[in-house]
Protein 1
Amino acid sequence: MAAQRRLAELAAEVKQLRSDIGVLRLENTTLKDKNTKLHQYLDKAEKKATEANNRATIAEQRLHSATEEANHVTADVSEIQEQLNEQLSKMKKQLVKVQERLTSSEQVTAATQVRALHEEGVYEKLLAENRDVHAYTTLLKDSNQLTAQRGTLS
């Protein structure tokens, strides 16, 4: 009897162990599936991270290139601005010279008109009529007398 009881106990234990083995195999299969899925997820995540790093590298290169180009453009703009300032300065000097020549031409024109009026005797008459106003002012206001002269100055 003891042997039968022991045999029954061992049979029950074997049965329990076989049941445990079945549960463990099922659990092992489930864990293998989870492990496979996690590896796939990890592979996808690594691929995405690599792609993101590649895009970031490309973006950094573009930014660096754009920054260099902007620096060159800024340098070009500064150079052009300096050249324009030089040209403006030269043009201002030329304008001053032209204004001086124009003033000289106006004075010569006025003197020529005064001489012509002297010869005609009109100058003294204008002086007598306009003692408060300078004769040159009166002469320059008379557009009929300057019309011919304006054509030669243009």
Note: Residues 2-153 form one domain.
Protein 2
Amino acid sequence: MAVPQQLLSGLAKAGTQHIVAARITTANETPTIAQIVRLANNTSAILWINVIGVRTDLGGPSATSNFTRRLRAKRATNIGATITVVDTIGTDDIDEIGTDVAVGTSTTDVTVTVTGLAAETYVWDVVTTATISTEFPDIIDT
């Protein structure tokens, strides 16, 4: 996994929206963190996560996987991040069974993990729109 890079940080006014994109490549079925949203203390956020995976090892987009998730996440002062609701929006649209996306937490972060297939190369684009209620989270791209 690449070393995470901090893309955005600081404070934003309540009710503002921020969009960040990440791109990674997988070549097997190992779950791989594609994006990390680090929540600041006393932050509540609604995240819309759109993920598109495209199989590229056959000379073009031979298969695609499309996922949309909506979630609420929060973090109180010096307490780990929690996800209170995760919704699948619509039906996951996948050409090859086994590709997947998962949303979870890791200490102060919300993580987006993608899973490709054995011996197949997928390029994953992850676009997250964050509506922030108090402080702005640091968004890290792996």
Note: The chain has one domain: 5-141.
